[in-house]
Amino acid sequence: AQSVTQPDIHITVSEGASLELRCNYSYGATPYLFWYVQSPGQGLQLLLKYFSGDTLVQGIKGFEAEFKRSQSSFNLRKPSVHWSDAAEYFCAVGARPGNQFYFGTGTSLTVIP
Amino acid sequence: DGGITQSPKYLFRKEGQNVTLSCEQNLNHDAMYWYRQDPGQGLRLIYYSQIVNDFQKGDIAEGYSVSREKKESFPLTVTSAQKNPTAFYLCASSSRELLTGELFFGEGSRLTVL
pLDDT (tens digit, 9 = 90+) per residue, A71-90? Predict the structure, then answer.
């Protein structure tokens, strides 16, 4: 069965510190992997995506993610967190376009000054 | 500006009433989706539609209904049969012409049952 696990419900980091959000997936086919960010009361915005090629992908707002097939992981990273990064982050997996997507339960990020 | 418009943003309903949430997109996308979001549960798929006049149930379709009469519109009706309808509802669309088919989201509609 397809599933996405985000082990960390909530993470708190200091501004300027590095960040890593974990994502593990279970998917039978070659996965398309995504990270989305959501501010309170808003829709979701795509941060980055992976479907093939270089396993380290760059996204918007200085985020990057690394696909590790052997570990079924797609962790999101940022070298230096800004206060505006405080939000909810969702990892998602999908198949070919137009099919279902599966989302993790999200990780809430708090940034302290 | 291309995008997805959901309305209303906030909606209050009495128990036993049906309510319809609107979702319109001008991205020319074939596929459209409705998700429900509850705290700590992530996004759960209610219904999705890959083409006009066709749609499939997602994981939590009971108590909901949809239609897809036009490519740009995918309204969701929350019926009185939905036992716990208070939630944040998100509409999304995707294009099969995009290699990865990522989802584009609206701003959401918050439904509160009084």
Answer: 999 999 999 999 999 999 99
